[in-house]
């Protein structure tokens, strides 16, 4: 396999075929519209990916809205980094992790207050991209009415991009989404190998 | 299922059990060390996730090194956003997409020059986190010697975090990594639904 990969003619032919496929795809893909992207599954990197897309959107000069539906007891690096940037509106739901509160009513109230913030962003076409971080958790526990969420997402401005993260995305949300990535665990330092959760990567 | 999820006692018990598991895991996880994280698979969000971790590390005051092993013809939003930040050293490999160059020798040369930059970062403990974006592609095509890469990664400062992205991560790299996420495609707007690749999310 290695030797074949090094054959320059074969390599050029393969790259040529690949280039053709890419060009055809680009030609076919002509719908200009805001994309609804869902990042789900048990693997590491869902929220990070959402925040990377925030950075990319900011790099393109867009205004970005961020609503975090689950917040740790400690302030996160993302919050420290993004909160005070121009072009960023950053909202964090007013409770700790669900498994620290143990109070369903309080969680429901906090989640719905956070959704009110998100819903207002989803009506405002000045936001080019909205990140709804860990929304899937709030949906999984039925903290927020799924139909309300789906309606607000569908009613948003045509060019607005939305990124939703969290494991266990509901099937109805997956159906509505344009792109869905399922992140699977192959190995996990924190769970499998006893490596301490750390600042910087917080695994 | 929905009804059971709404039973407050059951909910409190479940959250209680979850909290215990989390506490046990945190108690067990006491190795303080830099983590090698690999984000691979065909799904959307690998590079974004790496850039999100860059933002998180910067939020914690770390110095970050970024080397991009594949560069598109156009400047990316991430580059525009991160390149000129203090605490960021940003290096982009000096060629277009491999399927645009069709010249194996040129690709090998460019990839190795980029690895030289990465290798120097991997010897410098002032970098808290290093992102090697799309390195897996360069390894897949044998542009860079895998043993050299593995040696440099293993020889890095103990507390340095490294994030490597790209589909088709080699098995030897997966073995060396602490955490590996495989990103699977559930749906893809660009491929499946003819939605145009756009600034902001670039799907």
From TrEMBL, chains A, B:
It comes from the Bacteria. Pfam families: CobA_CobO_BtuR (PF02572). SUPFAM superfamilies: P-loop containing nucleoside triphosphate hydrolases. Its main location: cytoplasm. One of its GO terms (molecular function) is corrinoid adenosyltransferase activity. Belongs to the Cob(I)alamin adenosyltransferase family. It catalyses: 2 cob(II)alamin + reduced [electron-transfer flavoprotein] + 2 ATP = 2 adenosylcob(III)alamin + 2 triphosphate + oxidized [electron-transfer flavoprotein] + 3 H(+); 2 cob(II)yrinate a,c diamide + reduced [electron-transfer flavoprotein] + 2 ATP = 2 adenosylcob(III)yrinate a,c-diamide + 2 triphosphate + oxidized [electron-transfer flavoprotein] + 3 H(+). It is found in: Cytoplasm. PANTHER family: CORRINOID ADENOSYLTRANSFERASE. Gene3D superfamilies: P-loop containing nucleotide triphosphate hydrolases. Required for both de novo synthesis of the corrin ring for the assimilation of exogenous corrinoids. Participates in the adenosylation of a variety of incomplete and complete corrinoids. This is Corrinoid adenosyltransferase. Pathway: Cofactor biosynthesis; adenosylcobalamin biosynthesis; adenosylcobalamin from cob(II)yrinate a,c-diamide: step 2/7. Keywords: ATP-binding, Cobalamin biosynthesis, Cytoplasm, Nucleotide-binding, Porphyrin biosynthesis, Transferase. Its EC number is 2.5.1.17.
């Amino acid at each position: 396999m290695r030797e074949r990969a090094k054959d320059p003619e074969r390599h050029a032919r393969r790259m040529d075929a690949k280039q053709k496929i890419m060009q055809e795809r680009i030609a076919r893909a002509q719908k200009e519209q805001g994309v609804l992207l869902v990042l789900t599954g048990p693997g590491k990197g869902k929220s990070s990916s959402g925040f990377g897309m925030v950075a990319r959107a900011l790099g393109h000069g867009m205004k970005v809205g961020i609503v975090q539906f689950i917040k740790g007891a400690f302030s996160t690096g993302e919050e420290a980094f993004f909160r005070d940037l121009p072009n960023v509106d950053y909202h964090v739901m007013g409770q700790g992790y669900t498994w620290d509160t143990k109070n369903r009513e309080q969680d429901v109230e906090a989640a719905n207050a956070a959704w009110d913030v998100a819903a207002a962003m989803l009506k405002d076409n000045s936001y080019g991209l909205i990140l709804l971080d860990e929304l899937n958790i709030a949906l999984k526990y039925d903290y927020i009415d799924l139909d309300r969420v789906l309606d607000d997402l569908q009613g948003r401005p045509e060019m607005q991009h939305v990124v939703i993260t969290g494991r266990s995305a509901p099937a109805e949300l997956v159906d509505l989404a344009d792109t869905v990535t399922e992140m699977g665990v192959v190995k996990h330092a924190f769970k499998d190998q006893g490596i301490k959760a750390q600042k910087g990567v917080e695994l």
